[in-house]
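Subgroup meeting minutes
Present: P.N., E.W., G.H.
Scribe: E.W.

1. P.N. recapped why we're keeping a running log of single-chain structure predictions: easier to compare across weeks, and new members can see raw inputs and outputs side by side.
2. G.H. added today's entry (169 aa).
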Amino acid sequence: MRDRRHAYVKCPFFKRERDLNIRCEGGSRVRMNSKASIDDWLSRFCCSGEGWQRCTIARQLRIEYEEADEMGDAELNMLRGKMVQKQREIKRLREELDNANKAIRQMNRSVDSIITVACTVHGEETSPGTFVLRLPEIRIEETLKTYAVFAEKDPETGEYVVTAAKRKP
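Output recorded in log:
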């Protein structure tokens, strides 16, 4: 244990206290705003012989463990099956998130490339290899509400053609 006072912890579900967090078994966490709040919680609940039993996290964990003790093998196997399904779902969602993040990075690279081309073609060269393009204030929501943007590649020239057309009211 990191700190001598943890030698006095009575709660069987207590795991650790660090960075204004008290972590309990099963991934539960109590987050506080100050060290004084942490100390108060520890003394009222975690380090108190009777106090830990009043803690909502400890009560819930006790109920879960008691219910698990009462379950038969069939129920436990069913829950294990559900857990495996949830783990597969989490894996699938993580893959989707990774793919979305890759798409966002690619989109950022594309936008950076478009801005670079616009700046080097239409901007002013202020020093060798450095270009400045001044644009009026951009009001994103107003612009998107007013205009639709279309982009396509010209198969003959290889150029990208970007069109901003005023939306119909």
